[in-house]
Amino acid sequence: MRRGLDRGVRRVALVGTESQQTQLRQILLSVDGQIEPHRAAPTAVTSEHDLVFVASPFDEATLHHLSSLDATPWLVILTPRLDGALMSRIEGVSNLVALLSIDAKGGPRVGHMMYVIRRLLSPMAVTPSSQELMRWGSTTISWTPRSTAEAASLVDALGAVGHRLGLSQAEAAATCVAAHELVTNALYAAPTDSKGNLRFAHHREQPVELSASEAPRIELTVDGNSVAVDVTDPFGGLTAARFFAAIGNDLAGSGGVVTLDRSHGSAGLGLSRCLREGATLRAEVTPGVRSFVGWWRDRRHHLPSAGRSAIFLETSS
User: What pLDDT band is residue 150 in, cutting at 50, 70 and 90?
Assistant: First the structure.
């Protein structure tokens, strides 16, 4: 069973090289001086730890050890590359919080690290929008499409809006891809009936129309350094297993085989396309209440498969 965020974070195990452990320790303590970070070998992690940061190539040994524990800590894997072999190793792993990219020297990307730590430390805080995470001066435009037709019009208009906000043709095209995939998931994969059954996931060829209270909210945010798309639905049905499996499905050809849970039809398959077009994909879900998925692309240097991060947090706010 996936651990809830209400337990809190104090004891943190750091698995990696000495240099990586030192950097991780510095980042953790800069966020909260009450955290107790411990350098650890893969087999030294225990159920008493609340959180484990493990850097590649120590992840395989650590995952094998964690499978023997009665209670699994939250897990963050730092990796230079998201590929099929890694996604195969994490299949079925409970309490996975994030796959965070590391730089060419093996160091963690500070912004991604601090986001995860702060969210784990403040599970009751409202999910921050991309506008809140960007620098002052960003521009945000929002929509609430209720139907397939409205969603299609939104995606068509989004490219033109992006151009007016200064996006290049490539940036606008990538943003449209992300918006299309996330909005489609929100319209088809999220809605449930009174018994919790999915209403449209297996019928994506049919147009849908939602009530005003069911409509997802889409936000496009742009500043000089980044472009982001946030989509929030009022159902809260996205799970960590579906999130990471959907990302891994697209990477299966790059080493390893990932089995995608298709019980939600093709729901979630578009998440892999989103990550391909961006640098970060973050999801925050309050089960049965709300699912938030945010896509982020760095306009200064877009990296192919290195430099990408995927984050999933189950919140109580």
Answer: very high
| Chain mean pLDDT for the chain | 85
Q: Is pLDDT of 124 > 90? A: no
Confidence of residue 251 (pLDDT cuts 50, 70, 90): low
User: In the numeric block, which tokens belong to residue 65?
Assistant: 């050890």
Question: Could you tell me the two tokens for 230?
Answer: 């946030």
Predicted structure pTM score = 0.89
